[in-house]
Write a structure and sequence with these properties.
13 helices; about 80% helix; single chain
């Protein structure tokens, strides 16, 4: 009697494993082979990540100074490139740019230091009087709101703590520009390091860029160079835009406060310009201080006028600096900026808040130009595996019941 063709012979059955008919795919056995090369690669990645973590955790201050130097270098790179077009060597162009910056900064300090110190000294001397006035205002408000017991208790608690809080906060905030100038040897040493690294970055970064490009295939080098240039433009454009915004906000705030007759207009204007470096949060800081100063030195009506002034100034900044300057350099979502500032404050304080935005701007370029296209290509090339019958070893006839 003939053997059916669809039944394997005895030799084939003895050398093969036949799964039960209708066995689910989860019961199939899959063999995963881990080679020695895979183990060595995983170990190398782990050691590299640990080394990076140790480097970041123990050399955070040095890395921050390095990043500041790179950001400053990218901000003034267009000036150095413009000077090079006049056939001036790059090192001499870098020196000329730094000399021009020092001359401008020195001139501003010569014009502002004496009146700034005078006004800050007057404010510190009159601080107890201003605290007493604010306590009276809080007491008056407390009496007006004492009809509600909960509100009255909250106002009483605020009144008891306001004196000590203002005694610490006002002098610290208004003396911030002076503390930055007279920060001591540590600040001077850090400034020298930043300026030195910035000079060498401007003179040597093109050689570093050539080395980095040589690590990539020839076909990918134009795209890599475009990404590197865009990161540099993003960092430098952001810094130039922020510096312009700081100058504009400082000048407009100083002129407005002087017209309104608010005392200590110069320190408040300088504070408004400096805090502009912290996006979205800076105007709230400087505006709150200015309103409180107007409230305790003049009257509540003057504080309302200061609020209107800051609203107008911020509208000018939002409709002039953001569209014409900042949007050409970097266009970050406000929520992303606030998240970056929050993380930066937790890690490095005020310095982290300042450096978080340019760092996120550079990361955005890498995500948009490198990571996102790679994910899209991987998704487009991915083809799902064809479905396999549950038991290919024992095919079932179409006529089987």
């Amino acid at each position: 009697m003939d053997t059916p063709t669809d039944v394997p012979n005895s030799t084939d059955v003895s050398n093969s494993r036949v799964e039960p008919l209708g066995a689910p795919p989860s019961q199939r056995h899959v063999t995963v082979t881990i080679t020695a090369r895979t183990l060595w690669l995983a170990a190398a990645i782990t050691i590299t990540l640990l080394a990076l973590w140790l480097l970041i955790s123990h050399a955070m201050d040095s890395l921050v100074l390095l990043f500041i130097a790179i950001v400053i270098g990218e901000a003034i790179r267009p000036l150095v490139a413009h000077i090079e077009r006049w056939r001036i060597p790059r090192p001499l162009g870098v020196v000329l740019v730094f000399l021009a910056v020092l001359v401008v900064f020195g001139s501003l300090m010569w014009l502002l230091v004496n009146p700034l110190v005078s006004q800050l000294g007057t404010f510190s001397a009159n601080a107890p009087i201003y605290v007493t006035r604010l306590q009276r205002l809080v007491t008056t408000l407390s009496q007006a709101l004492h009809t509600n017991s909960l509100v009255g208790q909250a106002i009483d608690a605020l009144s008891s703590n306001v004196a000590s809080t203002l005694q610490r906060t006002f002098p610290a905030l208004l003396s911030l520009p002076l503390n930055i100038v007279t920060g001591g040897v540590g600040l001077l040493f850090s400034l020298v390091i930043v300026l030195t690294v910035t000079v060498f970055w401007l003179m040597s970064s093109h050689r570093l860029g050539t080395f980095v490009l040589s690590l990539f295939p020839i076909s990918s080098r134009p795209q890599v160079k475009d990404v590197m240039d865009e990161v540099g433009r993003s960092l430098g454009g952001y810094v130039r835009g922020v510096l312009f915004a700081m100058f504009l906000i400082g000048v407009l705030t100083g002129i407005g406060l002087a017209i309104l007759g608010v005392p200590y207009a110069l320190p408040l204007a300088l504070l408004a310009g400096l805090t502009e470096f912290i996006p979205y949060l800076g105007p709230w800081i400087s505006g709150t201080v200015a309103v409180l100063v107007a409230l305790v030195t003049v009257d509540p009506l003057k504080a309302v006028e200061v609020i209107i002034l800051f609203v107008v100034v911020q509208q000018v900044e939002g409709n002039l600096v953001q569209p014409l300057v900042m949007s050409k350099a970097v266009n970050l979502d406000p929520l992303l900026v606030l998240i970056a500032i929050t993380i930066g404050v937790q890690l490095l304080g005020v310095v982290g808040a300042i450096l978080a935005v340019p760092l996120v701007a550079a990361m955005q370029v890498l995500v948009v130009r490198v990571i996102a296209p790679a994910i899209r290509r991987a998704s487009a090339n991915w083809v799902p595996a064809p479905s396999v019958p549950d038991n290919p070893a024992l095919p079932v006839s179409d006529n089987a019941e």
